[in-house]
Specification:
This protein is α/β, with parallel strands linked by helices. The protein contains 5 helices and 5 strands, in the order βαβαβαβαβα. A 5-stranded parallel β-sheet has the order 2-1-3-4-5, sandwiched between helices. The protein is globular, with a radius of gyration of 16 Å. The C terminus is likely disordered.
């Protein structure tokens, strides 16, 4: 089962989106802030992270910066979920390494499409399992 990490400070939104994603076959780890998102990503190794930008303790921008700078988490695709939709906001998030930028209120069908696209792209980029083949001189 695909494991998603959802970082959203609004409890109602977090619970509602968690239930909707679980009904669509995802395992969801839900956390209320960026600090817990970084810790959960390191601990649980999700397949994808859904990250709000405005959160307490550690905001989504800094959480994404930490996740993208850590060798253990930098390959995990991140989809930003936020009400900030100016060109500057979108551009800054994409430049920082997020896969997609989705405006709130979230349209579930579109979000699931973005999740599946990111997972397929990540699967194609994974190195093959096992040790690298040795070439003969």
């Amino acid at each position: 089962m695909t494991k998603l990490l959802l970082a959203e400070d609004d409890e109602f939104s977090r619970d509602m989106l968690t239930r909707r994603l679980e009904r669509n076959g995802y395992e969801v780890i839900a956390v209320p802030d960026g600090q817990e998102a970084v810790a959960a990503a390191l601990r649980d190794r999700p397949d994808l992270i859904l990250l709000d930008l405005d959160m307490p303790i550690l905001d989504g921008r800094n959480a994404m910066r930490l996740l993208k700078s850590d060798i253990r988490t930098y390959r995990i695709p991140i989809i930003i979920l936020t009400a900030h939709t100016t060109r500057e906001d979108v551009s800054a998030a994409l430049d920082a390494g997020c896969y997609s930028y989705e405006a709130k209120p979230v349209v579930l069908r579109r979000l699931i499409e973005r999740i599946e696209e990111a997972l397929q792209l990540t699967a194609r980029k994974k190195p093959p399992a096992g040790p690298p083949a040795l070439s003969e001189p």
